[in-house]
Amino acid sequence: xxxxxxxxxxxxxxxxxxxxxxxxxxxxxxxxxxxxxxxxxxxxxxxxxxxxxxxxxxxxxxxxxxxxxxxxxxxxxxxxxxxxxxxxxxxxxxxxxxxxxxxxxxxxxxxxxxxxxxxxxxxxxxxxxxxxxxxxxxxxxxxxxxxxxxxxxxxxxxxxxxxxxxxxxxxxxxxxxxxxxxxxxxxxxxxxxxxxxxxxxxxxxxxxxxxxxxxxxxxxxxxxxxxxxxxxxxxxxxxxxxxxxxxxxxxxxxxxxxxxxxxxxxxxxxxxxxxxxxxxxxxxxxxxxxxxxxxxxxxxxxxxxxxxxxxxxxxxxxxxxxxxxxxxxxxxxxxxxxxxxxxxxxxxxxxxxxxxxxxxxxxxxxxxxxxxxxxxxxxxxxxxxxxxxxxxxxxxxxxxxxxxxxxxxxxxxxxxxxxxxxxxxxxxxxxx
Length: 432
Description:
CATH architecture of the domain at 240-352: Orthogonal Bundle
Number of strands: 2
CATH topology of the domain at 240-352: Human Immunodeficiency Virus Type 1 Capsid Protein
CATH class of the domain at 240-352: Mainly Alpha
Mean pLDDT: 71
Strand content: under 5%
Shape: globular
Oligomer: single chain
Strand order of the largest sheet: 1-2
Order of helices and strands: HHHHHHHEEHHHHHHHHHH
Helix content: 40-55%
Number of helices: 17
């Protein structure tokens, strides 16, 4: 049992992930045996896009990870999404997997074969091969433009300023274009090439994300992509379909706060959320009164945490009411603040979950004449959890559950149980 991890070479992505679960702080959320089952048994059987297949030893390949992540979300396999995200998390920590044989796919892949004129300096800066996901070429937009742009952009590389293709890299006029070749021209909407000075500065991450995040496959709010200086995160907001699915899974907070809190916790683990995403989820799934009650309790919890840890923010600083402008890149403080806000919100949900006690709902559950007693007991247990504050495992909850089970069972079973309960083992009315 305890040696299951030793079967996997630490040089494989799966073995590397198993060895670093504690370092990544995922050992409390993920189960090793389930991770191994998904990676070696379940995922290799899924049909991914482009006839790709998940390797049993795991992978850091951006295309395969993205296809598997999208497939799990599309088919509602929500329990598998955190395990896919674990590979994304390890992928963003190159220092933990430098010994892995597939380490070269973390930040860069071979340049696209359609650009034979690219030199070695291009291959050193080129991002991974073209994909249909959010723009991961923030540092080198020219390399990916023929693959991600609409068809009108494709002939642009064959229409340089110079009449011959071989002189593409020599045609730009005077200007600071030495570090970036003139292939930046295809990114311009006009068919005629423009001077290279205008496209040299890359637009902000947020602007590029808003312009290209309309793909239906974009479901992860913060997507890790490769840049010239390493992995960066770009924001891809939830789609309307995602929000509808989230609202359905969370349900009503007032009717079933336990389910709401459980699904919210899972959502916070499965997605790399931002403040805006948390705000959208709350406004979509909670009423105004519920949201105000939860946020007030969350800020009170933040004040209590600050008493024991003065480095933690308090009140509105911990759970902001407006966009705080946090930076979620590695090495910045935004991710720590976001995690603290999620913890405060969950604590606020628990404090604000005023579950309405309604024993009449339990009395409405009657055993059918042909119903299995075990199924009937399970229905009573679920009703006790949903409509009361009693735990079926505690003495008080067990007593209430037994009373309703006897009084609301089928007539013949009720008579038998009452006889056994009143007279003990000395008399049973249905003994022969």
